[in-house]
What we know:
Blueprint: H1 3-33, H2 38-48, H3 53-75, H4 84-122, H5 125-131, H6 136-173, H7 179-189, H8 192-218, H9 224-257
Helix pairs in contact: 1-6, 2-6, 3-4, 3-6, 4-6, 4-7, 4-8, 4-9, 6-8, 8-9
Amino acid sequence: MNEIPFVSLLVEMFSFIGGVSLLVGACWADLRRGPFEWRLLSEQIYQIGTRSLPLVVVTAVASGMVMTLQFGIGLQKFGGIPYIPKLVSLSILREMGPIFTSLMIAARVGAGIASEVGSMVVTQQVDAMRALGTSHLQKIVIPRVFATLITLPLLTAIANLIGIFGALMIGRYELNLDPAFFFQKALPANRIADFVTGFGKTYFFAFIIATVSCYYGLSVKEGTKEVGIVTTKAVVTTSILVLVGDFFLTKLFWVFER
């Protein structure tokens, strides 16, 4: 009795991996043939990047403030307040900035892409593109993938700055840390490798978010009811892959830095 759900899950997992792989291969083939849709790319950069900026800013400043406050509460008992700038800035650059930004983009953009592409499938816009001899991948998938690859690293860089600024504010007004002292301790503690580690992860996260969301959107077959289902699947799957991928990427960068 317990084998049937396991087999079903295994089949679904391999179907997902195979479907995403085929989609990536088809996109690569279409990208090589061209032409590239620059106008659609600029539109998606606005939709994915610019419109996500307020959400990223709020998330970054809140996370930086909360982390500083929590570190302050914990380290104050042991006289460790002077170490807070190092701990918070390093945590933001390497982990919190990329992860929180990617999760917010997975929630907002992943859901948006899956529902939008799924609606296009339901309303037969994708079939119309194929009937006219136009590649739906060049019109739908490729611009969204490249827009996410461009915007997510930039949003992460902004989130890092905003998060450290939020940490600075809490350090100044709640923990009585001088701003000059904060920067004096934070800047030497962070290397270029720390920034590159967090920044480099975002390209993997961006590719996962865009391709998985497009895959689920294109997989709609049973009408509008399934659009909501695949939207939920897209958000859940991309969020899990971001978190799991972060562990393996952190391990990989750690091996290179040794």
